[in-house]
Amino acid sequence: MRIHLTGVFVDDQRKALRFYTETLGFQVKHDIPLGEHAWITVVSAEAPDGTELLLEPAAHPAVGPYRAALVEDGILGASFAVDDVEAEYERLVARGVRFVQPPTDLGTVVTAVFDDTCGNLIQIQEEKGQP
Amino acid sequence: MDIYRAIADPTRRAILDELVDRSGQSLFELCGRLTMKHGINSSRQAISQHLGVLEAVGLIRTRREGRSKLHWFEGAPLKTIRERWPVSTDEDTSHSTDEGIEE
User: Fold this and answer.
1) What DSSP designation does A47 have?
2) In this complex, which of B33, B68, B69 lies closest to A106 when CB atoms are compared?
3) Do A74 and B36 touch (CB under 8 A)?
4) Which residues contact B49 (CB under 8 A, 6 or more apart)?
5) How far apart are CA A97 and CA A25, in angstroms?
6) What residues in A contact B69, CB-CB < 8 Å?
7) Could you say which residues from 74 to 103 on chain B have a Cβ atom under 8 Å away from some Cβ of chain A?
8) Which residues of B71-95 are buried (b: 16+ CB within 10 A; e: fewer)?
9) Which of A73, A117, A125, B89 could make a disulfide contact with B27, Cβ separation 3.0–4.6 Å?
10) Is pLDDT of B98 > 60?
């Protein structure tokens, strides 16, 4: 068994698609109209056949209170692996991304957390080599 | 609870250490730091209760930023300890007293 799809709830699917592709650099895998919403997934350009991230509409009434409670405590919507958190932080800040946690060295990993402008806190994480 | 009981607990002292390291942390970030840097594997709920104790004695303040609740260290209550048991500074030691006599 493998994880092929996971997702984040997004306030506005079109805005989310722009952020996740144009700002973060992911690629569109599927964009299938489904009534007023769409089935939209993105993949990493480094792994186009890898795990898809579903940009799920936040319209369900349970999503509002669920996400509000998570974000209040700073809990993540998703976490993405990068080779160099500091470099990625600089690149994204230059593109106007708002970080709520700057790069932080936690010993075995370096992490940073940004706001995806669609209602979620997203972490980038770098695994450090064994000392 | 008073300030002495509040800082008697090692987890609460680690929380203050981490908030001094970086102000304005969410519960999630604090829990991550406590686990990764201090080996403290308490539940979020337990850490939240510790934060409540520290806030009640005024050692941390919380503020909403955007949709998140963030925590800050507040050192002012520690003044009561320093006033009760004053800390001698270099100026108070014998050699500075000599300087005082020269003046």
Assistant:
1) B
2) B33
3) no
4) none
5) 13
6) 72-74
7) none
8) bebbeebeeeeeeeeeeeeeeeeee
9) A73
10) no
Q: How far is B38 from chain A (nearest CA, A)?
A: 10
CA B28 to chain A, closest CA, distance in angstroms equals: 5
Residues with Cβ < 8 Å from A52, sequence gap 6 or more? A4, A5, A6, A29, A30, A41, A42, A43
pLDDT tens-place string over residues A43-92: 999 999 999 999 999 999 999 999 999 999 999 999 999 999 999 999 99
Average pLDDT over chain A reads 96
pTM (2 decimals)? 0.88
B27/A73 touch (CB, cutoff 8 Å), yes or no: yes
Q: Does B5 touch chain A (CB under 8 A)?
A: no
Q: How many residues does chain B have?
A: 103
> In chain B, which residues have their Cβ closer than 8 Å to the Cβ of A71?
67-68
CA distances from A106 to A74, B13, B30, B31 (A): 17, 18, 11, 11
Q: Are B59 and B74 contacting, i.e. CB atoms less than 8 angstroms apart?
A: yes
- Its ipTM equals 0.88
- Specify whether the CB–CB gap between A67 and A58 falls below 8 A: yes
- Contact present, A37 and A20 (Cβ < 8 Å): no
What would the pLDDT profile of B47-63 be if each residue is shown by its tens digit?
A: 999 999 999 999 999 99
DSSP B31-86: HHHHHHHH-----HHHHHHHHHHHHHTTSEEEEEETTEEEEEE--GGGHHHHHHSP
